[in-house]
Design goal:
Helix content is 43%, strand content 17%. Bound molecules: guanosine-5'-triphosphate and magnesium ion. Guanosine-5'-triphosphate (GTP) binds next to strand 2 and helix 3.
Length: 272
């Protein structure tokens, strides 16, 4: 894994140029961490990511002054590249900025991980090894929840699971909401060039469905997701669930013209 020689701050969208090596190595991963007001947990996440050997791209999604200071300190200490969105634009937009930045820096893969410490960071090496072995595939977390997970979120996940079955005409995606995954950047950035899968909490779901439509393979690894007491969630029950429902409906109308292709691929045994 190589690391860019400069670890500096960039406004989001101001991508570095001419840093892509002439012959980029096949597997050269980094981490992308979207951050919106998680000042108490983000440092530990970055330190764990760095301890796993990954360079880190932080995307500040219009966080408060307190969180912004923490992110500045991490960048100034050389622990992360920092992209800054002056206004909050949503997790999806932040992740998309981070993925584009990672691609412009010449990375081949990006581990997406949340800043709130809910993901099992001990699993990073396993996810990276899976990505190294299947560099064409998205390596997705298949989340396991404990008793600490809010019931309402679990019901929402079930509903999403059913919609994703419908919208892919398959059970190929057992969970589309877990934000702990490794993206192969080439097919993901190609998708992002054609459409915006979602600006907020709809992104994690829509990007997987659309990558599936495009035939990108996926692999699933079990991973624990925790809700520690006092943890901060910015998931807005009503707003984000309406947004997600609209996104499922949009995907449904995108699935209809693709249905022959999706079913044909399955019949011929060529589903990704
Ligand atoms: N909710 C939210 N998160 C954002 C936003 N922008 C970036 N993020 C980051 O996206 C990640 C997920 O945010 P959370 O608020 O924990 O949402 P979640 O994990 O889907 O929801 P919970 O399961 O309730 O924790 C964190 O790293 C946030 O800091 C935003 O506008 N809203
Ligand atoms: Mg969370």
């Amino acid at each position: 894994m190589t690391q860019p020689d400069s670890l500096r701050k960039h406004p989001a969208g101001a991508l570095p140029t001419a840093q892509t090596p002439a012959n980029p190595p096949a597997f050269n991963p980094c981490a992308v961490i979207p951050v919106y007001n998680h000042p108490d947990t983000v440092r530990a996440v970055v330190e764990r990511v760095r301890a796993a050997g990954l360079p880190c791209v932080l995307v500040d999604d219009g966080s408060s002054a307190e969180c912004a200071r923490t992110l500045d300190a991490l960048a100034d200490a050389g622990l992360a590249q920092l992209l800054r969105r002056p206004l909050n634009g949503g997790k999806g937009q932040a992740v998309q900025d981070g993925l584009r930045h990672a691609g412009a820096l010449g990375y081949s893969h990006a581990l997406q991980v949340d800043a709130d410490g809910q993901h099992a960071l001990d699993d990073i090496p396993v996810f990276l090894e899976a990505a190294r072995q299947r560099p064409d595939a998205v390596i997705c977390g298949a989340p396991a929840y404990g008793d600490d997970a809010p019931r309402s979120r679990l019901y929402g996940r079930w509903l999403t699971r059913v919609w994703v079955w419908i919208n892919t005409l398959s059970s190929a995606i057992p969970d589309a909401m877990c934000g702990f995954r490794v993206y192969p950047l080439a097919p993901t950035l190609a998708l992002l060039q054609r459409c915006n899968p979602g600006r907020r909490m709809d992104f994690d779901i829509a990007v997987l469905v659309r990558l599936h439509w495009r035939g990108v393979p996926m692999a699933w690894l079990p991973t624990q997701v925790t809700y520690p007491p006092g943890g901060i969630s910015h998931f807005k029950g009503l707003r984000d669930n309406i947004l997600i429902s609209r996104m499922h409906a949009r995907l449904f109308f995108g699935m209809l013209p693709r249905a022959p292709l999706l079913l044909g691929r399955r019949l011929l045994g060529r589903a990704p």
